[in-house]
Amino acid sequence: MALLSILDILMTIVGTVGIAYQALCVVISLFAKPITFPDAPMDRRYAVLISARNEENVIGNLIECIRTQTYPSELIDIWLVADNCDDHTADVARAKGCHVIERFNKELIGKGYALTYLLDRMNESGVSDQYDAFFVFDADNRLDRHYFEEMNKAFQAGFKILTSYRNSVNLSDNWVSSGSALWFIRESRFLSASRMWLGNSCHVGGTGFMFSREVMKRNNGWKFHLLTEDLEFTMDSVLHGDRIGYCGTAMLYDEQPVSFQQSWRQRLRWSKGFLQVFRYYGPALIKRAVRERDFSAVDFTLLLCPFMVLAIIRMAMGWLFAVCGFVSWQSQIASLGGWTSSIVTAIVTMMALAALTIIVERDHIGATNKELFAYVLSFPIYMLSYVPISFQAIFAKAQWKPIEHKG
């Protein structure tokens, strides 16, 4: 039928363009000189914003990382919102000299709402005016000791919004944590670095990013509450014409889920959040791409495009039409060969991408060669699990739930 043919053409175009762009980014990152920033005076004042829910086991590690930076500690203030905590997170943070605001709201749940509450309190008291920019971290993060010094260079080079290199503290725990960690390292090394070289905006991850006081004032604090509030913030910033920078010399270490159940739940929320952001921001991004000839808008339209959902819908429609007699069973059975070939190609490509990531970033990855070889083989399993996750995301009412951290 014509409808199936149109879907096939659409998916082929989007898939080909997306893969070609990803390949271009890999080539650029391998051969182009990384963007670096000149030394800058360490005289700007920064506020660190942390949303923490029952994080007494890990929050001390992050605070210690911030206190021992090469950047002057007197110019960094830590503000923590203890969000619906029933442990000693607030007490631990206060004992370490942090500004702590407690929040109890069982209806508006999620990091976005917590950040809104925190910045609203800071704006109401006027204390936010004393800061040049705001950093956002998760309670389980750890930082290289030069993190603030390097981000300060990029900030003073003119970027109003910045993201950083995202590594992992537990890549070698098992195949689940390694899958997530390699994905984030790949994004930093290949995508963010190449976007900087091309002059595009980068994608702000859920943690390890910074925005200026000007951006905060424009947004009247923090106004992003979708399931992927970081992606929502990115799209809103791109639509405002901001260029989001990437500081590859500022390294943040994140803790990844180690159980498949936790990973599934987290990625279900991300997948649902991507659909939400595409719904609210996709049309505006496409309009900006056409009217302003903004390649960043093209880039993020490809990022948001629910290709996996389209593939699932296309397959389901094919079999439904066969049941109804609109198309032949033979054509659907024949199409299985194409799907099988695509899956095999995807598996080989993902193993190659994982291997390349490990090779070029070996100095930043703490695992044995034997472990890394096993994780190259398991990476496609981790990634292909996004297929059922994407299917569930179409119907699920995913909610924000905390990830347990071991400290």
What does this structure look like?
InterPro entries: Nucleotide-diphossugar_trans (IPR029044). The chain has an eight-stranded mixed sheet, sandwiched between helices. The chain starts with a helix and ends in a 12-residue tail after the last helix. Helix 3 links the parallel strand 2 and strand 3. It is built from 14 helices and eight strands. The model has no long low-confidence stretch (mean pLDDT 90). It is globular and about 70 Å long.
CATH T-level fold name: Spore Coat Polysaccharide Biosynthesis Protein SpsA, Chain A
With strands numbered from the N-terminus, the spatial order across the biggest sheet is 3-2-1-4-7-6-8-5
Segments where pLDDT lies below 50 for 5+ residues?
A: none
In DSSP terms (H or I, runs of 4 or more residues), the helix count works out at 14
The CATH class assignment is Alpha Beta
Described by the principal axes of the CA atoms, the overall outline is globular
The total domain count is: 1
* Residue fraction in strands: 5-15%
Average pLDDT for all residues: 90
The percent range for helix content is 55-70%
How big is the Rg? 22 Å
Q: In angstroms, what separates the terminal alpha carbons?
A: 56 Å
GO molecular function: glycosyltransferase activity
Transmembrane segments: 6-32, 297-322, 342-360, 372-395
Pfam families: Glyco_tranf_2_3
Organism: Bifidobacterium aerophilum
